[in-house]
Amino acid sequence: MTLLNPLFLILLLIPLAIHAENSFPVIKATSTLMKRVKVIAIGEDQVHDSFRLPARIDLDQQHVARIGATVTGRIIETEAILGQEVRKGEQIATLNSTELGLAQSAYLKASSQVNLRRLAVSRAKRLLASDVIAAAELQEREGVLTEADVDLRTATDQLRAFGMSDSDLARLSKERKIHSILPITASIQGTIVERKVTVGQVVQPADALFTVANLSHVWVVAELPEQQASWAHKGDEAEVTIAALPETALSGRIIYVADMVDPDTRTVTVRMELPNAQRNLKPHMLANLLIRKQGIQELILPDSAVLRVNDSDHVFVETGPEEFQLRPVKLGIRYGDVRRVLEGLKQGDKVVVEGGFHLNSERQRKELE
């Protein structure tokens, strides 16, 4: 009689062992057990892949203005305070500037020179008509007038750069009095969120004295690791949860994904816009940004149907009236309270979503018997 090689026997029995592990007996449920069991037919639905990022609330930089002086001077008055609502054009500080006075003096002198040169040109035209002077004399006086016009335009442009309007220039030309007082006004409507000036302070045009922001909209800003840079796109659905407002979950869409990676943090900036009519969202609040991919049709299974048996996922499938069998399945990641089905089930299969624990206890009891 020929003896079989022991190694050959082991290899022969391995498939039988695997088959035995994955083959479970059919459980016939009693009427009492059926009262605890709920069965549904699984199908396809839209699932959304998602990615969660730490984020922060920030000012909407498209509605922020940093306001400063247009000329060197000393602040002599300011009544604007942090949190104050201001209108566009509203005065928020007053500046006294000798530089402005000198520019106005140069403007008045240039204006006088233009008037004198115009009179000289007009007189030269009359003299030329009477053959008293030559044409070259008239041309010379017209050249001097042109130079005076250039000086006046230069002085006018400088005053406009210092913040004087056309009505201010008209008043200066009419009254011919120097006013070294210049109002500092809000360039947009909003809330004063920053103030860096006090009365008596000497300021330069480069100094930002106030920051005014429209807080009716804010940004949610997050940094996406460069490894996932291709993951988020403008228009993706997103949801924001805020640590300071635990009951609040706000939905919207991504409005911006940076085109460059930050070389220091190796991240890509992602931005979302939120309405803030009630001012509950404060800049610099901590938040979480959940970005959702566009939904795709997938076969899904309620998470409550899944049982862990022998360190793998299983579900009870209805095989007949009041009959159930445990079946191994391969599942994808969780989307809320559902799981994506990769292997083991097909659309229309009836699975147990409630009472699976009791059926599994009955299965184990039968196996022991």
Task: Describe the protein in words.
With 369 residues, the protein is an alpha+beta fold. It has three domains: 25-47 and 297-368, conserved putative lor/sdh protein from methanococcus maripaludis s2 fold; 52-63 and 214-296, Beta Barrel (Elongation Factor Tu (Ef-tu), domain 3); 98-179, Helix Hairpins, CATH 1.10.287. The chain has six helices and 24 strands. The strands form six sheets. A six-stranded antiparallel beta barrel has the order 4-13-16-15-14-17. The chain has a four-stranded antiparallel sheet with strand order 1-21-20-19, covered by helices on one side. The longest helix has 32 residues, at 98-129. The radius of gyration is 40 Å and the shape is rod-shaped. The relative contact order is 0.20. Residues 6-22 have low confidence and may be disordered.
Essential attributes:
Elongation Factor Tu (Ef-tu), domain 3, 3 domains, rod-shaped, 24 strands, four-stranded antiparallel beta sheet, 369 residues, alpha+beta, six-stranded antiparallel barrel, Helix Hairpins, conserved putative lor/sdh protein from methanococcus maripaludis s2 fold
